[in-house]
Design goal:
Blueprint (H helix, E strand, L loop, with lengths): L1 H7 L24 H10 L2 H5 L18 H18 L4 H10 L8 H11 L8 H12 L13 H8 L9 H6 L17 H24 L14 H9 L7 H30 L5 H6 L9 H19 L2 H23 L1 H4 L10 H10 L3 H11 L1
Length: about 375
């Protein structure tokens, strides 16, 4: 079965057989290297905790808003569609999609900002780098090694979620200097599978935050009519409001937004593959521009949606009240743990030479509920 997949994959795809892992392991005939990576992510404690981590709203405010785990599953669905179209390594793409948010703190980006402030003197905090820490060190499920021992291709894709890395200072501080020992080329572009996972994150984030914002009455459909592309979609579906509920109309609009963005990515990526004459994987790594991308028109649409969501949703008074409370909780927890680390964490399990980073790891791994409950005990 794996031999067939090797023959049928595009020459631009990452091959099903990995270049290797940090620690050698026995192969299995049941699953490919990247299927094993995906399964390790799904069975990880960090992935399970995403169920109770906020996407935008504080998790305790409602049952129907998205959490990090539902977002990750939605990203994986969009990414698999794109990957299948281009005949790429679907298992790798799904792994990257499911894993990309493992390092997120409780309370969304507000929690990340607060934890970064707390860690200012100790190297800072970044949720993308925290994802790597989880994969390399923090998950503890095997006798032979710490972490998940993911393939080098998966680690490369997670590291380059936002493209090539030019400044390594923060990575050296948070992960460890020269940890990768030339196994990762930080300046090269990531695989097409990694680029697809990244743009699928954008598509899922924008469209589903629009849906959550509409459902929570933070804004109305008419507020979106000023955004090009959206105007025509909303107009078409608004005609049906006499026959269908507003909830169903919103769902149909979101479906169409995702569909339009996916079709645009396919068209633009096909154009870029031909433009740069890409006919093998090495050429993908050596490019100087992202291959998987939006058209200029869709990119403007993407920017306008992000701006709209910032103004109407993320900076909304109701949401800001929750996010400010989240920041307060994170800072209080960090302060209390710094004064007496052994009261809250098992110091023997963590890095004694860097207690601040150990506290940071512990807090970053908390769910919203756990953080709130612990805060209420110590305040």
């Amino acid at each position: 079965m794996q031999k067939n997949s090797i023959r049928t994959l595009s020459k631009l795809a990452v091959p099903p057989k990995s270049k290797g892992r940090f620690f050698k392991e026995k192969k299995t005939s049941l699953r490919s290297d990247f299927q094993r990576d995906r399964d390790r992510i799904i069975h990880s404690t960090a992935f399970r905790r995403l169920k109770h981590k906020t996407q935008v709203f504080v998790n305790t405010t409602g049952d129907h808003f998205r959490t990090r785990i539902t977002h990750s599953l939605e990203v994986a669905q969009i990414a698999r569609t794109l990957c299948k179209f281009f005949n790429l390594n679907e298992d790798l793409c799904e792994t990257l999609s499911l894993a990309h948010d493992l390092g997120h703190t409780p309370f969304g980006h507000a929690g990340e900002d607060a934890l970064n402030e707390c860690m200012k003197k100790f190297g800072g905090f970044d949720h993308n780098i925290q994802t790597i820490r989880i994969a390399l060190f923090l998950e503890n499920r095997y006798y032979e090694f710490k972490g998940l021992n993911l393939t080098l291709e998966t680690i490369d894709g997670l590291l380059k979620h936002n493209g090539p890395i030019k400044k390594l200072n923060k990575y050296n501080s948070i992960i460890g200097k020269n940890y990768f020992k030339n196994k990762i080329n930080f300046s090269s572009y990531p695989s097409l599978e990694a680029q697809i996972a990244s743009i699928s994150d954008d598509i899922a984030y924008n469209s589903h935050d629009l849906e959550d914002g509409l459902k929570s009455n933070l804004f109305k459909l008419k507020d979106l009519e000023k955004i090009p592309i959206l105007k025509n979609i909303i107009f078409r579906h608004s005609k049906r409001k006499n026959n269908y509920s507003i909830d169903l109309i919103i769902r149909q609009i979101i479906r169409e937004i995702i569909n339009e963005m996916v079709k645009d990515v396919i068209k633009t990526t096909n154009y870029n593959i031909k433009k740069y004459n890409l006919d093998n994987l090495n050429k993908v790594y050596r490019t100087h521009y992202p291959i998987v991308n939006f058209s200029k028109q869709m990119n403007k649409f993407d920017i306008k949606i992000k701006h709209f969501l910032r103004q109407k949703m993320y900076y909304n008074k109701k949401v800001k009240k929750n996010t400010n409370q989240g920041k307060k909780i994170i800072k209080k927890l960090f302060s209390a743990m710094q004064k007496n680390p052994s009261k809250y964490i098992n110091v023997s399990k963590y890095d004694k030479s860097n207690i601040a980073r150990s506290i940071c790891d512990f807090i970053a791994g908390m769910t919203d509920r756990y953080a709130i409950n612990l805060y209420n005990k110590i305040k």
